Structure formats: C-alpha cells, structure tokens
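Data card: per-record layout.
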Amino acid sequence: MPPKNRTPDEVVQQHWPYDGPHSDATMASAAQAIAELVRYLNNAAWSVKLDGPGLYSVLSPLAGGLLSLDQLLGQLHAAAHSLVDDPTLYDDRRDRPGEHTAVDVADAIGDARVHQEFRLGIETAAQYACHLGHDASAVA
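The structure for this 140-residue chain is written out next.
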C-alpha cells in the first residue's frame, strides 16, 4: 500500500519523474515496476470480490495504460530500427549479424502493435463496466 497521504501518482513521480532524468536503467526499472504491479493485481484478483464499480475502477486505468503502451511500442520500434546501422552491434549467439536481430526485434514489436485485440478488449470491457452499479434497495 502506498505510504499514507500519498497517491499512486506521487509514488511513481518520486521514483520516475516524468521529466527525467531518463536512462536505460530508469526505463528498465519502470518496466520492472509495471511487471511487479501486474503481479500484485494477479494476486489481488484472487482474493478481492470486485463489484460493478470496482471492475470499472480497475479496467479504466488499465485501458488507459494500454492505450499509452502503443506510443511506447512505437518508440521502441524506432529504437530497434536505429540499431540496424550500428557497426558495433552483434548478436551474442554469433550465428547472425546483429543488424538482422535488430530487424527481428523491430518486426516483433511492429507485429505486437498491429495485433491490438488485447488492448481493444480491455477498452471495451471498461466501457461496459462503467455502466454497472448496485441497487441497495434490491437487497432483501
């Protein structure tokens, strides 16, 4: 749980300020934090009985994050393509030139961007979930 009186946004800003500094290491640690948060959500989903508004409160920000993920993937795609012309790049398996592996990375990212059913499905679920509520008077 975030420290008292601190929003999740404040916790994130403490560790990964929007304006930087940015580096390979800070990007990797932010990606690791995302992995840990998904792990937390996976565990919490076993024990929390979400009601209609609760589903929406989880799905809506998740959909927003997935929408932003497309921009990140576009930037990572460009970064992978920029490696193709780097003469110092190599593939540690030594069975192919590094530039070929960089193209493979870029192509895989491009494929992920094309197949956005996952993101679209979460957005649709959030749109449905925002209409769920509970009528307390219906409980006997």
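Known properties of this structure: The CA atoms of residues 67 and 119 lie 7 Å apart. Residues 50-133 form one domain.

See the next section for split statistics.
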